[in-house]
Amino acid sequence: MAYADYEHFDVELDEAGVAYVTMNYPPLNLLDEVLSPELDAIAGELESDDAVRVVILQSALPEFFSAHSGLGRVGMAPMVVGHTRSFRMTQTMTERFRNMPKVTIAKVEGRARGGGSELALGMDMCFADRDTAIFGQPEAAIGLVPGGGSTQRLPRLVGRGRALEILLGCGDIPADLAELYGYINRALPSAELTPFVDRLAHRIATFPTHTIAHVKTAVDVGASSSLSEGLLVEAHESDLSVASIVTRERIAAAMEAGAETVEGELDLAFLDKLGR
What we know:
Blueprint: E1 9-13, E2 18-23, H1 35-48, E3 54-59, E4 64-66, H2 71-75, H3 89-99, E5 103-108, E6 111-113, H4 115-122, E7 125-129, E8 134-136, H5 150-158, H6 160-169, E9 173-174, H7 175-181, E10 186-188, H8 190-204, H9 209-224, H10 227-242, H11 245-257, H12 262-267
Parallel strand pairs: 2-3, 3-5, 4-6, 5-7, 6-8, 7-10
Antiparallel strand pairs: 1-2, 8-9
Helix pairs in contact: 1-3, 3-4, 5-6, 9-10
């Protein structure tokens, strides 16, 4: 796929299967009626592109990952709410990234507030620049309930009290505190962020695609259901992976490369010999 029909995104897919998706919608990368449809369309392409194994979402703007969703369209929304509940576009878009059978990573530099924060929360993982990244959900301060998933994802990540602190305090959460709370995976110094994310993405890209999808399915069920239900799903997804010829071939390759030997098991160096 060419990924050439987007005005505010640059998509580069390398030979390893890592797709770098860069937002460039100055001055704020607002998730408004211009940027959101483009990102949703890109998500659809990435989801169906078998060459893609890992997606890294980042920003070309040094001060903003994404400031928030556009308030202009919110102010033009109908003042009468219908009785039929429906999902918001930001919710469905972030769910597409969460559910696609590949790994999605947000690399955050600058501010990720409101819808920008919710976009980062919707990715499988989030890594941030310790020196520049700021997270926050300021919606309540202007009378809004966040509508892109943060009221549901934050309690699962940071607990109820801290979620309410973030959602009702409406203050900025610097990257190091976001890491401490569990809001993000890690905060890294500026010079280390890109190399770390690149190494992780390319490591994951060497793993079988079906295994990545099975692991995501099991983790998602485990995060939102009972332990017994999650264990049953885990067992089923594990059985599906074992039944794959790709997995059988990699097991044989691992054994040949040193698995289950003292030397091989000391630092798992044999994993790097398995390739894609």
